[in-house]
Amino acid sequence: MTNRILRYLQRHGTRQLSKVFFRVDRRLLVTSLQRLGLERGAVVCVHASLSRLGHVVGGADAVIDALMETVGTTGCLLMPSFPMTGSIVRYLEEGEPFDVRHSPSRVGLVTEVFRQREGVLRSLHPTNAMAAWGQGAWELLRDHEKSPTPYGAHTPYGRLAEQEESFILMLETHVHSLLHHLQERVDFPNLFLPEEREAPFIDEAGLRRTMRTRVLRPRIPYFVAIPSSGKTEPDWAILHDFALIFPRRRERLLRQRGYRFAGYPRLYQRRAVLEERGILRTTRVGRGEIGLLHVRGFLNHIEPELRDLIERFRSCYDPERIAALRLPYF
């Protein structure tokens, strides 16, 4: 009980300090996005951790308004719109159909508020739907339910990757779902469970339909084998930290949880390399950090490296072996 009270007081104190020292409003967000180089007409997939930015005046609506104002109607905003958190297998086993019109997005408040905005469309994939608004939204979302995998070439994630000028915007969070598309591109070992699963959904007309999809294997795909320091066995990195340690607070958290990467220091160097090449641009907003990542440049940078590491350590990707390591994921 005492710990619970202390945690409550700490959260309350943080909120009060944020209201005074870390106020963020729509105008500040627009200015910050423009400072990053986000322009009208941009195609951008957004991931947001609202509470870590500080006190956002207007909440999720202010963030969405700022994004829409920045890219304009000639641009396109995308956000993940998954109807579940946790295990996809468990979600499918429960048998509740995904309703594209009504199933809430459970990957953050901003995504759920965005889903309900006028003019926002949503793809029909029952487990890994994407929502989009703006010019070209439907071209990016169409036929997602026809893809045999959630993140393949003929999905919103694959189409985003093929755009010459598309971006991932990280509001005090990391790269997220594009990384599963990257894993499909490089034939990541044991990425999916062996068999397809049947998934029910309800379309825009209210008709119940079914599709078959491959399902990400629980836990195993979220770790990447990397060279160790003086050991025959590899070290392991969390997938999103392998790709880019962002925001900056992640480096301290990684060290606290026991990740060191002494045998592969380029993970700690990647942010500086991407910034130097103009692939990543960052700025501070409120108490948090936001980053704009150029999708094509990022994939061109990291895909060959991941392919080489997979070939080197392919035999290490046994699901039971990785599970036994009990690697901390956060």
Q: Can you characterise this structure?
A:
- With 330 residues, the protein is α/β, with parallel strands linked by helices.
- The chain has one domain.
- It is built from 13 helices and 14 strands.
- Helix 2 packs across helix 3.
Question: How would you summarize the topology of this molecule?
Answer:
Elements: H1 2-21, E1 23-24, H2 26-36, E2 43-48, E3 55-56, H3 59-71, E4 76-80, H4 88-94, E5 98-99, H5 109-115, E6 121-122, E7 130-134, H6 137-141, H7 156-162, E8 166-171, H8 178-185, E9 197-202, E10 208-213, E11 223-226, E12 235-238, H9 239-243, H10 249-256, H11 266-276, E13 280-285, E14 288-294, H12 295-313, H13 319-325
Parallel strand pairs: 1-3, 2-4, 2-8, 5-9
Antiparallel strand pairs: 4-7, 6-7, 8-14, 9-10, 11-12, 13-14
Helix pairs in contact: 2-3, 3-5
Compact description:
The protein has 330 residues and is of the alpha/beta class. It has one domain.
What keywords describe this structure?
330 residues, 14 strands, 19% strand, 3-stranded mixed sheet, 7-stranded mixed sheet, alpha/beta
Placed side by side, the strands forming the largest sheet appear as 6-7-4-2-8-14-13
pLDDT below 50 for ≥5 consecutive residues: which ranges? Answer: none
Task: State the shape.
Answer: globular
Specify the biggest β-sheet.
Answer: 7 strands, mixed
* Helix-and-strand structural type: alpha/beta
Bin the helical content.
Answer: 25-40%
- What's the rounded overall pLDDT mean? 93
Tally of separate domains: 1
Number of strands: 14
Oligomeric state of the chains? single chain
Radius of gyration: 20 Å
Please count the helical segments.
13
Please state roughly what percent of the residues sit in beta strands, choosing from under 5%, 5-15%, 15-25%, 25-35%, 35-45% or over 45%: 15-25%
